[in-house]
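TL;DR need C-alpha coordinates for one chain.
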Amino acid sequence: MHAVYYRDEHGYEPVEDYLAHLPAEHAEAIYIAIDRLNRLLPADPPLPFPHSSQVDGPLRELRCHYGRRLYRVLYQRSDNLFVLLHILEKRSAELPEGDKATAKERWDSFKARMDAAPRRPPRPAGRDAP
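>> reply
TL;DR here they are.
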Protein backbone atom coordinates (compact mmCIF):
# COMPACT_ATOMS: atom_id res chain seq x y z
CA MET A 1 0.00 0.00 0.00
CA HIS A 2 1.12 3.52 -0.64
CA ALA A 3 -0.22 6.87 0.54
CA VAL A 4 -0.33 9.58 -2.13
CA TYR A 5 -1.34 13.22 -1.95
CA TYR A 6 -4.45 14.22 -3.85
CA ARG A 7 -3.46 16.46 -6.78
CA ASP A 8 -6.06 18.62 -8.50
CA GLU A 9 -6.26 19.10 -12.26
CA HIS A 10 -3.84 22.06 -11.99
CA GLY A 11 -1.18 20.11 -10.08
CA TYR A 12 -1.94 21.62 -6.65
CA GLU A 13 -1.55 19.24 -3.69
CA PRO A 14 -3.53 20.76 -0.78
CA VAL A 15 -2.42 18.28 1.90
CA GLU A 16 1.26 18.64 1.00
CA ASP A 17 0.88 22.43 0.96
CA TYR A 18 -0.75 22.39 4.41
CA LEU A 19 2.06 20.23 5.81
CA ALA A 20 4.70 22.52 4.30
CA HIS A 21 3.29 25.44 6.31
CA LEU A 22 3.18 23.63 9.67
CA PRO A 23 5.99 23.78 12.23
CA ALA A 24 8.46 20.99 11.47
CA GLU A 25 7.65 19.04 14.65
CA HIS A 26 3.92 19.02 13.88
CA ALA A 27 4.49 17.92 10.29
CA GLU A 28 6.84 15.16 11.43
CA ALA A 29 4.14 13.73 13.73
CA ILE A 30 1.75 13.63 10.76
CA TYR A 31 4.36 12.04 8.48
CA ILE A 32 4.83 9.28 11.09
CA ALA A 33 1.07 8.60 11.02
CA ILE A 34 1.10 8.54 7.20
CA ASP A 35 3.95 6.04 7.35
CA ARG A 36 1.65 3.70 9.32
CA LEU A 37 -0.61 3.63 6.26
CA ASN A 38 2.35 2.84 4.02
CA ARG A 39 3.19 -0.24 6.11
CA LEU A 40 -0.19 -1.89 5.47
CA LEU A 41 -0.41 -4.76 3.02
CA PRO A 42 -3.24 -4.88 0.44
CA ALA A 43 -5.09 -7.61 2.37
CA ASP A 44 -4.79 -5.84 5.74
CA PRO A 45 -7.84 -4.21 7.30
CA PRO A 46 -7.81 -0.42 7.86
CA LEU A 47 -5.72 0.95 10.70
CA PRO A 48 -7.60 0.45 13.97
CA PHE A 49 -8.75 3.13 16.38
CA PRO A 50 -7.06 5.29 17.74
CA HIS A 51 -4.89 5.62 14.62
CA SER A 52 -7.76 5.80 12.14
CA SER A 53 -11.55 5.82 12.14
CA GLN A 54 -14.38 5.77 9.65
CA VAL A 55 -15.94 9.14 8.79
CA ASP A 56 -18.60 8.37 6.21
CA GLY A 57 -18.76 5.26 4.04
CA PRO A 58 -15.25 4.57 2.67
CA LEU A 59 -13.99 8.02 3.79
CA ARG A 60 -11.67 7.64 6.78
CA GLU A 61 -9.66 9.93 9.02
CA LEU A 62 -6.04 9.43 9.98
CA ARG A 63 -5.83 10.67 13.55
CA CYS A 64 -2.64 12.61 14.31
CA HIS A 65 -1.56 14.84 17.16
CA TYR A 66 1.34 16.89 18.37
CA GLY A 67 0.98 17.73 22.04
CA ARG A 68 -2.55 19.09 22.45
CA ARG A 69 -2.96 19.92 18.75
CA LEU A 70 -5.16 17.43 16.93
CA TYR A 71 -4.90 16.96 13.17
CA ARG A 72 -7.05 14.84 10.90
CA VAL A 73 -6.09 13.67 7.42
CA LEU A 74 -9.16 12.58 5.48
CA TYR A 75 -8.34 9.79 3.06
CA GLN A 76 -9.87 7.08 0.97
CA ARG A 77 -8.52 3.86 -0.49
CA SER A 78 -8.20 3.34 -4.25
CA ASP A 79 -6.94 -0.18 -4.98
CA ASN A 80 -3.37 -0.17 -3.58
CA LEU A 81 -3.30 3.56 -2.86
CA PHE A 82 -4.44 5.67 0.05
CA VAL A 83 -5.39 9.04 -1.42
CA LEU A 84 -4.82 11.80 1.17
CA LEU A 85 -7.63 14.18 0.29
CA HIS A 86 -7.84 16.84 2.99
CA ILE A 87 -6.19 17.85 6.25
CA LEU A 88 -7.43 20.01 9.10
CA GLU A 89 -6.71 20.90 12.68
CA LYS A 90 -9.56 19.46 14.71
CA ARG A 91 -11.01 21.91 17.21
CA SER A 92 -14.42 20.39 17.99
CA ALA A 93 -15.87 16.97 18.77
CA GLU A 94 -17.38 16.55 15.30
CA LEU A 95 -15.61 16.97 11.98
CA PRO A 96 -17.06 20.04 10.23
CA GLU A 97 -19.41 19.13 7.38
CA GLY A 98 -17.54 21.53 5.06
CA ASP A 99 -14.31 19.55 5.52
CA LYS A 100 -16.10 16.27 4.81
CA ALA A 101 -17.66 17.82 1.70
CA THR A 102 -14.24 19.05 0.52
CA ALA A 103 -12.78 15.54 0.87
CA LYS A 104 -15.72 14.02 -1.00
CA GLU A 105 -15.45 16.58 -3.83
CA ARG A 106 -11.73 15.87 -4.16
CA TRP A 107 -12.43 12.12 -4.22
CA ASP A 108 -15.02 12.59 -6.96
CA SER A 109 -12.52 14.66 -8.96
CA PHE A 110 -9.79 12.04 -8.45
CA LYS A 111 -12.07 9.17 -9.51
CA ALA A 112 -13.37 11.03 -12.57
CA ARG A 113 -9.83 11.64 -13.80
CA MET A 114 -8.64 8.11 -12.99
CA ASP A 115 -11.67 6.49 -14.63
CA ALA A 116 -11.43 8.62 -17.79
CA ALA A 117 -10.56 6.90 -21.05
CA PRO A 118 -7.04 5.55 -20.80
CA ARG A 119 -4.33 7.56 -22.46
CA ARG A 120 -2.27 5.99 -25.19
CA PRO A 121 1.21 5.25 -23.86
CA PRO A 122 4.02 6.93 -25.79
CA ARG A 123 5.62 4.73 -28.37
CA PRO A 124 9.23 3.75 -27.89
CA ALA A 125 11.77 5.86 -29.71
CA GLY A 126 12.89 4.18 -32.88
CA ARG A 127 14.89 4.97 -35.98
CA ASP A 128 12.28 7.50 -37.07
CA ALA A 129 12.31 9.41 -33.75
CA PRO A 130 13.36 13.07 -33.96
